[in-house]
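Deliverable D2.4 — example input (structure tokens):
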């Protein structure tokens, strides 16, 4: 089988959760299907495009429009279509993978032209609701949907998608976070905890809950001033000034430290190890007309891989990773008082933290390894082969005719 993937962005230009996920997905799929089995098209807007070695073929596609035309190009690029059709003539792919739901209409059009099925990737808030008609319609026309979590799958099923249409393929731990020794705790300590949050500090992602942690710390300062945790916030973005202001007005300057973003895995690993708990109480819901929440949250798994358990709200994709008191600590959403109470409880019980951390480490090594992701991909491909026939369609179009039109 040969697969052609359409990407909205790539790890060559944007380093984010979706980009890493697709890179791992394509790498492991190529290992499953063999050499020359996976080709992906990625936009190239301007400047150099520094490719690094991959197990799959990467084809940069020039994107040139600006302003309003750029928004159209991002969803329906003539260059992307032309390049896809040209590759189809030479490589004869049997399946199209759409790397983001915004490209689903283009994926559908290409599937009709090439007379092959297409699958769409579903991560989180971008598919939970509020899609435009063309995108919603194209998503429903996907032969299959690869969902990043059971949380997102359950939402899609509740929205009327078929359960059998959706296959969960979890992200996997990045190299450097698999098979690591467990963090050691000094169980005799009864000193303030060391907390860590790793995320973008983007004003559009205030749902991640940094402000709720700060409110919880402010409450602890009033009742247990000698036990206020030391809180490290790692990441950059335009929401940092707001958070720094909250720290100032709460008088938490001695307890909160801001660190810039790092792409260095060794530095990130050390940050996790220097912490007692990872904390990111992300909320879930729709407000101001937009869906918010975690589609998965690989940072919870990264912390767990080192034996550091997480505190989170009981909602969103994190529920695929954490089970309360077993592999993490889950709190009812928006329960800031409970966040504070839990932190005080855990301050006096390092053994509880260590035991949950050890179980969390075992859980993520079993369920979120590269081998586990590879197995989920294989299951998805196998389950769909029996129902996905490569068949001509009544409204299919000959590829040479389309190429001539585009040129």
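Example output (designed residues):
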């Amino acid at each position: 089988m040969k697969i052609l993937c359409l990407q909205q962005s790539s790890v060559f230009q944007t380093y984010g959760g979706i980009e890493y996920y697709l890179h791992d997905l394509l790498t492991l799929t190529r290992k499953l299907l063999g050499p020359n089995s996976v080709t992906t098209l990625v936009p190239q807007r301007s400047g150099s495009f520094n490719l690094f070695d991959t197990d799959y073929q990467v084809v940069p596609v020039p994107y040139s429009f600006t302003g309003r035309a750029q928004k159209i190009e991002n969803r329906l690029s003539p260059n992307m279509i032309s390049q896809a059709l040209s590759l189809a003539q030479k490589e004869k792919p049997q399946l199209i993978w759409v790397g983001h739901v915004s490209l689903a209409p283009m994926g559908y059009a290409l599937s009709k032209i090439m007379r092959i099925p297409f699958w769409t990737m579903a991560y989180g808030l971008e598919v939970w609701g509020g899609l435009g008609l063309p995108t919603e319609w194209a998503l429903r026309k996907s032969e299959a949907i690869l969902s990043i979590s059971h949380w997102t799958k359950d939402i899609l099923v509740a929205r009327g998608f078929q359960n059998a249409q959706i296959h969960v393929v979890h992200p996997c731990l990045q190299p450097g976070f698999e098979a690591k020794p467990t963090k050691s705790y000094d169980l005799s300590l009864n000193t303030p905890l060391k907390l860590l949050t790793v995320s973008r500090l983007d004003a559009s992602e205030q749902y991640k809950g940094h402000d709720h942690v700060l409110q919880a710390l402010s409450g602890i300062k009033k009742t247990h001033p000698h036990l206020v945790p030391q809180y490290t916030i790692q990441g950059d973005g335009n929401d940092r000034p707001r958070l720094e202001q909250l720290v100032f007005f709460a008088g938490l300057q001695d307890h909160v430290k801001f660190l810039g973003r790092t792409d260095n895995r060794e530095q990130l690993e050390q940050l996790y190890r220097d912490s007692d708990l990872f904390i990111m109480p992300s909320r879930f819901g729709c407000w101001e007309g937009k869906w918010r929440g975690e589609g998965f949250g690989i940072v919870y798994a990264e912390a767990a891989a080192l034996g550091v358990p997480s505190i989170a709200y009981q909602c969103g994709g994190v529920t695929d990773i954490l089970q309360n008191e077993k592999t993490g600590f889950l709190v009812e959403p928006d329960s800031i008082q409970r966040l504070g109470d839990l932190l005080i409880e855990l301050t006096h019980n390092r053994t509880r933290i260590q035991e949950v951390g050890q179980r969390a480490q075992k859980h993520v090594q079993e369920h979120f390894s590269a081998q586990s992701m590879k197995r989920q991909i294989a299951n998805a491909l196998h389950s769909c082969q029996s129902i996905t026939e490569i068949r001509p369609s009544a409204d299919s179009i000959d590829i040479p005719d389309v190429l001539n039109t585009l040129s």
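Residues 386-407 have pLDDT under 50 and may be disordered.
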